[in-house]
Amino acid sequence: MPSRITTIAAASGLHARPAAMFVQAASKSGLAVTIGRPGETPVDARSILSVMGLGAKCGESVELTVEGDGADEVLEALVANLQTDPEA
Fold first, then answer.
1. DSSP state, 55?
2. Segments making up each domain of the chain, as ranges
3. Which residues pair with 33 in a beta bridge?
4. Which residues, at least 6 apart from 2, have a Cβ–Cβ distance to it below 8 Å?
5. N or C: which end of the chain has fewer CB within 10 A?
6. What is the CATH number of domain 3-82?
7. What is the rounded (10 degree) CA torsion for 23, 14, 49, 39?
8. What percentage of the chain reaches a pLDDT higher than 90?
9. pLDDT score for 35
């Protein structure tokens, strides 16, 4: 089960549009994906309410974990998603 810590690039953090885009990508993968602050209990990355409930802001670190076949590729795509500001 690969995991990786990355930084939120979206100026608005994981709120509204950036969160929706991330959740959509996580859901599309078909794999179990979690997200959370390092050292805290992670949430289901396929749930918009859970992801927005994190309140993750621009520049904060989050840890992603993906479980299942093709997890490494999905993890890389999701990390790239978080490292891109869709509003820039």
1. -
2. 3-82
3. 66
4. 65, 66, 71, 72, 75
5. C
6. 3.30.1340.10
7. 100
8. 94
9. 98
Pair of tokens at residue 8: 């939120």
Q: Which residue has the tokens 């890389």?
A: 76
Question: Structure tokens of 9?
Answer: 């690039």
Tell me the residue length of the chain: 88
Please give the average per-residue pLDDT across 21-28, as a whole number. Answer: 97
CA distance 87 to 32: 27
pLDDT higher than threshold 80 for residue 88: no
Q: Is the pLDDT of residue 64 over 80?
A: yes
End-to-end CA distance of the chain: 32
What's residue 3's pLDDT? Answer: 97
User: Is the separation of the CB atoms in 44 and 50 below 8 Å?
Assistant: yes
What pTM value is reported for the model? 0.94
Catalytic residues: 15
